Amino acid sequence: MRNGAPLSRTPGRGAPQLRLRLGFIVIAMVLSFFGARLVQLQGIDPNSYAAMAAAEGVEEVVLPAERGDILDRNGVALADSVHGKMVIADPLMTAENAPEIAQFLAQRLGIDYFTALERLRGRKEGSRFEYVARRVPSTLANDAVDELEELGFEGIILRDDPVRDYPAGDVAANLMGFLGTDEALGGFERTFDRQLAGKDGMARYQVGAGNRIPLGENTVVPARDGTPLQTTLDRDLQWFTQKVVAQTVQSYGARSGAAVVLDTRTGETLALADYPTYDANEPLEADEDDLGSRALSEPYEPGSVQKVLTVAALIDAGKVTPRTRIKVPPSLDRQDRSIGDWFDHGNLRLTLTGVIAKSSNIGTVLAADAFSQLELVDYLRKFGLGQRTDVGVRGESAGILTPGESMTSQTKDRVAFGQSLSVNAMQMAAAVNTIANRGVHVTPSLVQGSATTDEGVTVGTDTAVETRVVSEQAARQVARMMERVVDENVGVAPRAQVPGYLVAGKTGTAQRVSEKCGCYDGSTTVSFGGFAPADDPRFTVYVVVHAPTKDGGGGSIAGPAFSRIMGYTLSRYGVPPTGGKPSRLPVTW
């Protein structure tokens, strides 16, 4: 202190400059560090650090949607989804041993070796997620991965991925279709793929060094499962119908066969059977020609079942009655050709009922002389011939029906008794059903309610269309005429009877056209179509057998199959006999 006052302390003049120098040194050191790091990244080891950067990216994982079931009319699954797995590889862990792992998976899972090899190695640099196989049964996938781990291979993981299953094997397989690895390949699976497939979801997350970054991007779009498709089919009836058709085809050495069972009143298809068929769970083991439905895709000449359509039209138009008398000669010369019957005979005196009961071509042609070509074709088109049924099966044939204005009189004669036109089995079943349904044609259905095909066509029972073709009286008269076909005393198909029930039906035998020459090849198509109870129809059944190698016609080959299918259907649905009296319409005069 000086003079009692404190001494003042003057700050050191070098202190601020010292702090400034220290600050510059720190900044220089930081900049040097970043500069050195930049040199290292860009010049010393660029590839390794680029790989590390790529590894710190975004991965996308598919969240598979569960495909909608295909159900029968009672809700029983014809196609459903069961637990399965997708096999996923981390190429950074599998690339080194890719050949060995690919060979193992190809053998165990039945996948393509080269595709697996490519994915195990990674299709892009730094990839950590590659699908190797989809929709693998859980047990098979789990066993394969366990064995890989036992062999010392790492980098293969599993995630849930539903597998399509067909619980009843070959039941309705020709209609169900099947799935490939990534797409629907036939039948309802393909036709209604958008509805059944739903939409896969997706998970996106950020990864670094192979691990998910907790605070990185994490986006999840949930899967939207597919919508079920309910059919009109009855699984048990479908199974029985297929067995009957298969036994018939095999017993007579035929090439193929089909059968259709319709609910007479609604047109709902309770069964649609094809043979040969296949197990929808093993489509690759089947012949390619057997994968679709011949009942819809294979046109053929219907033969004499067609006669009931011709006669129904004539009666409706007031041209004839069931008792109309017709003189039937041994043969009938028309232009440069002669028309004969399937059996040899002299001059016959048949009623129109007798023409149907005996299945006379000549008698049908003589009756049809009352019609012009235009009139006959107009009626047949109302019966649904010459146009697709559009029941929701891809590849359906419309058949062939020559327009009336361009049809010759010779062609009209043959069309009247079932030649020179072609149909598919569903068309013909629906046409016969028109007579059973009191003269009203109802478009057949395979789908309950409504569903839209991938081509934008809405089908199903909700869209069924009813069209009056012939009067109720005309339909009833024809039904009584058809009862005489199965009469053991006068008809050609007594083996089509169903014990306890009145049955109305008609046989068919037609020459087959060869695809190679466009000419008749000597083989035949035989069929039987009918309904029961004849006096109060409930079901219509149509059976067709192509190219049998043993002697027989529609009555002896298709008739017994009809009887078995119709008998089972009536019993299954608890339809009692009506107790009605059989037709006694005269067949001769």
TrEMBL record:
Keywords: Membrane, Transmembrane, Transmembrane helix. One of its GO terms (molecular function) is penicillin binding. Its main location: membrane. Residues 63-213 form the Penicillin-binding protein dimerisation domain. It comes from the Bacteria. InterPro entries: Beta-lactam/transpept, Beta-lactam/transpept-like, PBP_dimer, PBP_dimer_sf, PCN-bd_Tpept. Residues 257-566 form the Penicillin-binding protein transpeptidase domain. GO terms for biological process: cell wall organization. One of its GO terms (cellular component) is plasma membrane. The chain crosses the membrane at residues 20-39. The keyword Cell inner membrane does not apply. It is found in: Membrane. Belongs to the transpeptidase family. This is Penicillin-binding protein 2.
